[in-house]
Automatic annotation (TrEMBL):
TM segment ranges: 12-30, 36-59
Alphabetically ordered keywords of this record: Membrane, Transmembrane, Transmembrane helix
Protein name from the UniProt record: Uncharacterized protein
Amino acid sequence: MGDLGRRGRGFWLHQIVEYLIAAALILMSAQSRHPLVLAAYGIALLINVTVVDGPFSAYKIISRGVHRIIDWLFVVALFA
C-alpha cells in the first residue's frame, strides 16, 4: 500500500474500523433492550462502508466525500 496517494493513505484503516464498529453494534444488539435500533444502525453502517469507493469495499458506488457526510450523519444520529 506504499503507492497510495496522499488522499488514499489511511482510508483502508478507516474502513476496517467501520467494519469493526458495525460488527460491534450488531453483536451488542443481542444484549440490548432495544435490539432493533442497534442492529439497524450496525447494518446501515455496514452498508455504508461496503459501497464507498475504497480498498475494502464490495461495491464502489459512492464517493468518499459522500461517505464522509454519511459518517457524520451516523455520529449525530447515534448520539441524538
